[in-house]
Amino acid sequence: MTKFPHVWRVTILTTDKTVNAFEEALNPYCEAIFWHPTDSKGEWQVEGFSKSKINRGKLVRALGVVADVFSVPVPEILIVAVSSGKGLSDSLKRFPPINAGRFFVYGSHFHKPPPYGQIPILLNPGRAFGSGSHATTLGCLLAISDLVGKKKFTRPIDMGCGSGILSVALAKALRVQVHGFDVDKNAVLVAKENISRNSVSSLIYAGYSNAYGSSKVKDKAPYDLVVSNILANPLRQMAKNMSRISRNISMGGCVVILSGFHNYDANRVYSIHSAYGFRKVRSYHINGWCTLVLKR
To answer: What is the pLDDT of residue 132?
Structure first.
């Protein structure tokens, strides 16, 4: 019988409102992270795997920072040693393939051919948020899927690219050069790995940028398609600079896909973007989360 070396698995339970932030807090302590909704409404389980024993005290302090921001208790932390092969295999099984419009998102544990006519995206859940299972990522994939063929896009940008899933979707669906940026340097590394796995490295530039103000972003402007799956407040704060790097009406206009916020924040996000000339085309509402499609 094959024996696998032991790794440490850390497990916490959180909510759909805080899963993204707690996942990021676990990043420095784990080589791989998985998350999935439980049977309880609004509850998510996050588990990470580490080759070295996790320092509980440091992890508690890291999670405490997130808990303070959201005014919630620090989640209970379960740390156990498990067989690395069995632990990772069991976790991957919780991530069945996802059908999202034209896209078929699957992990390396799925060995069947993708459905005929769908665009395959190979992505294992890991150290950057965005596996396609969360409603915000799913909403963006559906929005991108519905835009294909309706307008010719030549310069899309994925701001807050995370795992790179949306950059890969844009590149495979539109077959044009895509620019993906993230403020988290670790996320950029993960995005580059996923971009390579999907054989679209020639079509995607993934790099570090703190929002839209960097020269790397400005040098490629103006963009005719902007995708940004982050949080409500950052989206509002970035609206002005986003409008500056977007094509205006005289140049053919720009379509914007915004996500990462709850339904009750949709009006707040839309109102500030409407001040810069963007109008709502449609919206997607999935499990209490919203994805907006705007156009100028």
So the answer is: 52
CATH number reported for the structural domain that contains residue 284 in this entry: 3.40.50.150
Q: At what angle do helices 165-174 and 185-197 cross, to 10 degrees?
A: 40
- The CA-based dihedral angle spanning residues 217, 188, 193, 261, taken in that order and rounded to the nearest 10 degrees: -90
d(CA 150, CA 9): 46
Q: What is the mean pLDDT of residues 262-282?
A: 96
Q: What token pair was written down for 164? A: 């790179």
Helix (H) or strand (E) segment spanning residue 227: strand 225-229
Element (H or E) spanning 94, and its range?
Answer: none
Q: Tell whether 75 and 117 lie within a shared domain.
A: no
Q: In what helix (H) or strand (E) does residue 123 lie, and over which residues does it extend?
A: none
State the residue range of the domain holding 290.
98-295
Query: Within this chain, do residues 10 and 85 fall inside the same structural domain, yes or no?
Result: yes
Tens of pLDDT, residue by residue over 182-223, are 988 877 888 898 999 999 999 999 999 988 988 999 999 999
154 closest CA partner among 244, 253, 292: 253
Domain count within the chain: 2
Q: How far, in Å, are 14, 141, 279 from residue 90 at the CA level?
A: 20, 26, 45
The answer, as to whether pTM is greater than 0.85, is no
Specify which residues 45 forms β-bridges with: 13, 36
SS3 for 287?
coil
More confident residue, 234 or 49: 234
Pair (238, 197) in one structural domain: yes
